[in-house]
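A.,

Following up on our hallway conversation. Structure tokens first:
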């Protein structure tokens, strides 16, 4: 683990938990999301002698045991967009979304499109607006949407924090740009330059999301960071009489302690990356 990250983790979680986190920074199993009936995917994997495990908390995911990403990419399943290579942690936020038929949904920081296409797969009758400020990343988003035959997503090449105040949504997913401290194992320079700017971006996006969310509706805030400044402390800035946390839980996954009840801070291991997820309700 990078020394800078380790020092910060010790401040936030103590030495014992930091050692446990460090042990979780190991190569992960290859994991996929099924965009078609999972039993069909499993049969094809069996035919190709690819070993896998099902995931008890995710009906769309499979853990690949005996091969790597480059092997999966050779399958017609992958080439035709019927499966998508996506980490288990990244697959979680859409599973906690509260979306009804034909809802207007905003994916606020969408590229490369893993969560966008997952939302489309789970909620095919929703109308999804996917924002991505970076032009090159928005092209990657467009590629993944087309490859997976998604037809209910509109891409906006725009900073989500600058969306019109006249827009409104029934559900919002804000997977915010972050330090990536739940996944970084090499040298980290986030505290040398740009960390305060990153916190400012997260806060602006979160406050904008709340302003765009319709009353009595729900949004997810998530990051692949374990730093509380990017997670709990950002959520605390927006909690009010009108904004509340709706508790969420998960089976079979080790969690880190949090300063907020009802959120998930996932401890990394060989299956999961470090990740934070919070479900908010606008009363």
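Then the amino acids I'd put at each of the 283 positions:
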């Amino acid at each position: 683990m990078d020394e800078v990250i380790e020092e910060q983790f010790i401040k936030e979680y103590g030495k014992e938990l930091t050692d446990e986190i460090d042990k979780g920074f190991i190569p992960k199993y290859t994991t996929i999301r099924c965009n078609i009936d999972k039993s069909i995917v499993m049969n094809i994997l069996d035919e190709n002698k690819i070993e896998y495990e099902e995931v008890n908390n995710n009906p769309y995911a499979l853990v690949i045991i005996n091969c790597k990403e480059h092997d999966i990419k050779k399958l017609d399943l992958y080439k035709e967009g019927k499966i998508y290579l996506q980490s288990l942690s990244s697959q979680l936020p859409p599973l906690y979304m509260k979306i009804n038929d034909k809802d207007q949904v905003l994916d606020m920081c969408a590229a490369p499109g893993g969560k966008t296409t997952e939302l489309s797969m789970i909620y095919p009758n929703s109308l999804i607006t996917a924002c991505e400020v970076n032009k090159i990343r928005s092209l990657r988003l467009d590629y993944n949407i087309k490859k997976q035959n998604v037809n209910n997503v509109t891409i906006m090449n725009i900073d989500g924090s600058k969306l019109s105040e006249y827009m409104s949504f029934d559900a919002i997913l804000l997977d915010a740009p972050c330090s990536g401290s739940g996944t970084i194992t090499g040298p980290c320079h986030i505290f040398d330059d740009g960390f305060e700017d990153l916190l400012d971006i997260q806060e602006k996006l979160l406050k904008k999301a709340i302003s765009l969310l319709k009353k009595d509706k729900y949004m997810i805030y998530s990051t692949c960071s374990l730093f509380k400044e990017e997670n709990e402390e950002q959520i605390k800035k927006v909690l009010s009489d009108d904004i509340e946390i709706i508790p969420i839980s998960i089976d079979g996954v080790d969690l880190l302690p949090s300063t907020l009840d009802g959120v998930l801070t996932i401890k990394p291991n060989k299956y999961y990356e470090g990740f934070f997820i919070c479900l908010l309700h606008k009363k």
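The radius of gyration is 19 Å. Curious whether your intuition agrees with the design.

B.
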